[in-house]
Structure formats: structure tokens, C-alpha cells
Amino acid sequence: MRFMFFYILVIFTLLADDTYPQIYSAIGDKVYECSDGFRPLSRSDNFLQMRLKLENFIAQSDKIEAMGFSLSVDNSSAKRIEYIKKLRHLDGICDELLAEVLTHLQKLFKEGSYTYLASLHVNKISAIRESKIVKISQEVIKKDDNSSNSRDSFTQIHRKFIEFKRELLQDREDENATECLNDITAVYYYLRELSLKGKECNNCDYLYAHMKMYYNSARLTCKDNPKYMQEAKNYIK
Questions:
Q1: Average pLDDT of each block of 10 consecutive residues along the chain (237 residues)?
Q2: Alpha-carbon distance 210 to 225, whole Å?
Q3: What's the CA gap between 151 and 191, in Å, rounded?
Q4: What is the C-alpha to C-alpha distance for residues 200 and 222, in angstroms, rounded to an integer?
Q5: How far apart are the first and last CA of the chain?
Q6: Which sign, positive or negative, has the C-alpha torsion 216, 221, 223, 226?
Q7: Where are the domains of the chain?
Q8: What is the largest CA-CA distance in the chain?
């Protein structure tokens, strides 16, 4: 009977307050926000390689959160000490995982996953939703949606470039392929800058001149890779 009474009190505590445990909230809120922020990431194929780490952290966090709520019923010194020790342990893991997640966001950006990255603006973790990668991705998607240009959007252009780059990287031993890669990379870099700046571009002439310079160089270095030059011609007028 005593156990059942204790169990019922914990359940009512959880139902009465859907926030995090109040005790040691300074560190606890951070840990539980990490858990809530990692939860949608763990279900995404974009974080497949990190899924196990994220799921393990979430499982541990859920257990500790339940323990924190139970302290409103059994607030003994031993319980509090055990709780804060476990919280500090998870806090350290949270920092490590968050650093890894932020690094992975940069990788996803380079791969052209703008739509997914833009969707993270509602993530529970402020370091993710307010990151520069997420904000730039939102701008890219917005520009693409509002674009009336008949040519491909920046997102499509950049995704094609990623495909070209991967193919060229497979032939790194070929000196011409390496030089071609460098020139085409520069071409698309300046194309990206022009696309992002749009009508507010104050130095478009400078950017366009550099883009043309690398384009002319690529005409020589990519002579053994004519399909890459053809793609560049579709955008460099």
C-alpha cells in the first residue's frame, strides 16, 4: 500500500506540472532541454550515425527526470546527492553530444540538406535553432521559394555541384581532375555568394569578375571533364 501511494503521488506530480523537476533546475533544465532537442534528431535519417548515442542519452535523461520528480515526495539527502551526481554526469555528455551535433550540421549544410536544416529553427536547444547554419538555410529556402528566375535555384545548383565534387574526388590521382575541382569549387563559391546576396549585393561586379576568372581557368583545367564545364555554362552567362 505504501508503494502504491508513493507511485500515485509521483504520477499526480507529473500530471500537475509538465515542466522539468524544480530541484537543481539550473543544471536540470539544461539536461532535459538537451534530451528534448536530441529526440527529433534521433528519429531522423540525417543523424543515423549518431542515433545510438542520442537514444542512449535520451533514455538516461528520462530515468533521471522521473527521479527528479519523485524528489517532491521523497526528498531525502541521499536521494538528492544521487540525483545531482547523475545530473552532472549527463550535463557533461550533453555538452559532448551538442558539439558533435553542431559539427554534423555543417556537414549537412555542405551536402545541401537546407530544407531539413531550416526545419530545426523550432528545436528545443537554443544553440541549434539559433545557429548560423540553420539561419542561413532558412534564408536559402526563402530565396528559392521567392525566386522568379527561370534558371535553377541556388539550392538545386549547389546540390548538383556536390554531386560533381564527389565524382571528381574519386579521381584525385588525376592532376587535371584536381585542378578542375579547385576551379569549379571557386566558380560555385562566387555563384553561391551572388545567389545569397540577391538584390542587396553591393559588390556584385567584384564577385562576378572573380567567378568569370575561375570559369575561364576551368575551361582549361576541365578539358578532360567536359560535362562539368557544360554545367557551369548553364549558370555563367
A1: 47 55 92 96 95 97 93 86 95 97 90 88 95 84 57 56 58 60 74 65 65 73 68 54
A2: 21
A3: 13
A4: 32
A5: 81
A6: negative
A7: 16-135, 147-233
A8: 85
